[in-house]
Amino acid sequence: MSIVPHAGDLTAHGRTPTHTTRQQRRRPAHSRTRRRGIADGHREFGTVGQVTVADWARIALPVACAAVLAGCGSTVDGRPIAAEQTAVTREISAPLSTLLPEVSQFPARYPAVVLPPEAAAQAAGDLQGAGRGAQVQPEVCSPPEQKFGADLTAIAVGTNDATRATVTVELMRTRQPLGAWRSQLKQCGSVRVNRGGAATTVTTELDPPPPIDADDTLALRRTVTPDVGGAGLTQSMQTLAGQVDDVRITVTYMTFSGAKPDTAALDELFTKAVQRVKKG
After folding, report:
1. Which of 87, 197, 209, 236 is the most buried if burial means most Cβ atoms within 10 Å?
2. Cα dist from 140 to 11, 44, 66, 158, 246, whole Å
3. What is the pLDDT of residues 148-197, one digit of tens each?
């Protein structure tokens, strides 16, 4: 069962007409929002003087991934976060490095590697559309604060050279509930980001949240278009995010080809990542 809303399943308003979940009934339907940002001139697999998510995956020694059984998302009673909650009080004691899916659990078409901390910081910026040190207008639309280190952020990325796409699993420690990020996305309609003189427009649309047993979930689609564009420079992403206690799970499919997202791989890895974090 796919837990990502596919293009053919959406109405003219970008909503999936069926599969209403308890979580969707719990809060108002998502409004469409837009964010803008910068990829700092990102190319398909890197730019001069800068390394992107795909670059790190190719620089590191690729590990051949074994094929795994696809996860199946289902509507399961979870532990909803109260609307008025402003911080996360529960913690998962296991190190993030042990909660990441094994590289062998990535689909075989996406050979994967675990990124070192510095590369993880670079990759996180790419996935947000605004790297560290970028100027964001309005400032309230800056990406959520994130810390990097051995047990603060952990990222594994799988690369499919044939389709020019990556699938990235990111785990991060946070004291903020996922709803705080959702609220920010709703409020930031037009965001401009400048870094090193390069500007990029980032558009973000919220999709119905994936039904899975987590404290909270959300889904989004994002396009990063540089002001000085060209063929193969527009970055398209589809993301599933969830939170279990103080660990936020984000799985993102990213491509520069404009091809249809590999939702099967996205579904599979998101399900595996959430289940692994819940087991602690």
Report:
1. 209
2. 31, 29, 42, 32, 23
3. 888 999 999 999 999 999 999 999 999 999 999 999 999 876 788 888 88
